[in-house]
Amino acid sequence: MHLRLKKNDTAVRMKLTPEVQEVAETEKRGRKASKETRRQQLIEATIDSLAKRGYSETTLADVADGAGLSRGIVNFHFESKEKLLIATLQFMADEYAANWGAALEKAGDKAAAQLWALVACDFDRKICTKRKLAAWCAFWGEAKSRPTYQALCGARDVRYQDIFLALCQTLKDEGDYAYEPEGMTLALCASMEGLWLRLMMGDGLTRDKAHAAAVEYLLVAFPKHFTREGPK
Amino acid sequence: MHLRLKKNDTAVRMKLTPEVQEVAETEKRGRKASKETRRQQLIEATIDSLAKRGYSETTLADVADGAGLSRGIVNFHFESKEKLLIATLQFMADEYAANWGAALEKAGDKAAAQLWALVACDFDRKICTKRKLAAWCAFWGEAKSRPTYQALCGARDVRYQDIFLALCQTLKDEGDYAYEPEGMTLALCASMEGLWLRLMMGDGLTRDKAHAAAVEYLLVAFPKHFTREGPK
DNA sequence: ATATTTTGAATGAGCGTTCAGCAAATATGT
DNA sequence: ACATATTTGCTGAACGCTCATTCAAAATAT
User: Fold this and answer.
1) Is the C-beta atom of B60 closer than 7 angstroms to strand D?
2) Less CB within 10 Å around the terminal CB: N or C of chain A?
3) How far apart are CA A138 and CA A152, in angstroms?
4) With contact defined as beta carbons under 8 Å apart, do A180 and B217 qualify?
5) Of B144, B197, B209, the CB nearest to A201
6) Which of B191, B192, B196 to mutate to test the interface with A (most CBs of A within 10 A)?
7) What DSSP string runs through B120-168?
8) Are strands A230-231 and B226-227 parallel, antiparallel or unpaired?
9) Inter-residue contact A154 to A136 (CB < 8 Å)
10) What is the mean pLDDT of residues A216-230?
């Protein structure tokens, strides 16, 4: 006979991370949480685990514990570990895309303002957290040997890169700059990704310093369009 | 009773990769290989495995197979899987450092030439192979949750970054550029790392195009010092 | 003969997956 | 209203597989 704790008694459970908590408390609690809410809660716990332990040490047990739920739960809501991870990456990719999409909307129709916004939003508090950067990096590390991950990681991808390229092209025409836009765009995008990488590694680099470095790049590339405070 | 193949008969073994072969055939063959040679051979096989299967799926069995040796071999020459991986990363970090060290030597004492050489050598055939980039990336993915990896990955690190910064500073003084050197250096280093990341991801980006993008950066940042063909 | 290197079978820990069963929520019957 | 049946969400023990590690024995070198 088992001695049993009362279920869903959050006071008894291990401390959950703010992100998981938040999702768990959205809508209704405990048993009544909808399927979609549970999935989200597990995805958040997965990001936590990836950030804390890295890809190779992320286990379903850890995810379940992190979500404050039982062992079999992932295979119930997702079909397998693999599918949970894909859903997690998908979620992050969607969030990322939504973020820059919204930033672009708000930026108005001047190319310089759009480019500025696009660069800034990569270092937004919502997107650019240690936690999420670590999770991104975990996926990057596995991406080369997994086409599925590669496709989703590259979702910061074609459309994004195209827009970037178009903006650089426009500014070049406006400002009579001499550079070769494709190389320029590539170097700029790469720089932001590299800054993410470094943010993740720690080193005492902060979000603000990273953003400032990216801005420095914008300044030397498009001196007629930007000051350190923003587009002219 | 076992039916046994004759040992060390390379004709019978699985095809080994060029890198492993090369090491295996350095010095004397088969059993007579020295301790150091065997270690190197296993390290090359580890890089192969990381590149082919990613960190999380790299197994000692795969490494041993890749080296054309038996299962227990790694635990004999290295003490554990963990130590093999650390030795592998250490090897790559040393090779990387030696590469830019040599490039710096050869570049003479003009700051512009040195910076050019430093950027160029990151895209050198010897360093910048799919295989090695993939291995680097595999380690990056695990680095946040493993201090040891983090320390070694950051070996493209303090000294490297300091030299870079000093060079940017010198060029700024020479050329009366307006940028803030710390941000500039950071953005430039990050750009090169980001380009590596993209090279690894595939996308049809080639070493030459990546190098060209980095050069494009140099051009806009230091227009008085460089042309696309090199330092003035 | 002794020391060193290599082998490969055995071991056991860790992990993803499965599934029978429990409990909460909801639907249906009275 | 209350009782009963059905559905849905969840649990956790059990299973089987993969893989790092160990080690006795074999092969080779000195």
Assistant:
1) yes
2) N
3) 13
4) no
5) B144
6) B191
7) HHTT-TTT--HHHHHHHHHHHHHHTT-HHHHHHHTTTTHHHHHHHHHHH
8) unpaired
9) no
10) 96
Residues 13-32 on chain A lying near strand D, CB distance under 7 A = 31
| pLDDT over 90 percentage in chain B | 77
Contact criterion met (CB < 8 Å) for B216 and A146: no
B12 beta carbon < 7 A from strand C? no
CB–CB contact B220 A221 (8 Å): yes
- Check residue B25 and give its pLDDT: 66
- At A78, the amino acid letter reads F
Closest nucleotide C1' to the C-alpha of A84: C16
The closest CB to that of B143, out of A153, A201, A216, belongs to A201
Is residue A79 classed exposed, middle or buried when 0-12, 13-18 and 19+ CB atoms within 10 A define those classes?
A: exposed
| Cross-chain Cβ contact B56/A213 below 8 Å | no
State the DSSP H helix or E strand holding residue A231, giving kind and residue range, or none if neither: strand A230-231
What does residue A142 show for φ and ψ, rounded to 5 degrees? Answer: -100, -10
User: What is the spatial distance between Cα B209 and Cα B203, in angstroms, rounded to a whole number?
Assistant: 12
Query: Do residues B86 and B152 touch, judged by C-beta distance below 8 A?
Result: yes
pLDDT at B29: 52
Residue B124 pLDDT > 70, yes or no? Answer: yes
pLDDT, tens digit (0-9, with 9 covering 90-100), for B153-173 = 876 678 889 999 999 999 999
Provide the whole-model pTM. Answer: 0.89
- Write the residue in A182, A183, A197 that is nearest to B197 by C-beta: A197
Taking 60 as the threshold, does the pLDDT of residue B186 lie above it? yes
CB contact under 8 A, B201 and A153: yes
Q: Each residue of A164-197: pLDDT tens digit?
A: 999 999 999 999 999 999 999 999 999 999 999 9
Mean pLDDT of chain B: 89
Residue type, B91: F
- As beta bridge partners, residue A181 has none
Give how far Cα A213 sits from Cα of A198, A205, B212, Å.
12, 11, 21
Are the C-beta atoms of A180 and B216 separated by less than 8 Å? yes
> Which residue's CA is nearest to the C1' of nucleotide D9?
A31
Q: What is the pLDDT of residue A61?
A: 97
Look at residue B13 in the predicted model and tell me its pLDDT. Answer: 47
Interface contact flag, A200 B145, Cβ < 8 Å: no
Pairwise CA distance, residues B44 & B22, whole Å: 10
Chain segment A55-113, per-residue pLDDT in tens: 999 999 999 999 999 999 999 999 999 999 999 999 999 999 999 999 999 999 999 99
Q: Give me the mean pLDDT over the B191-206 stretch.
A: 92
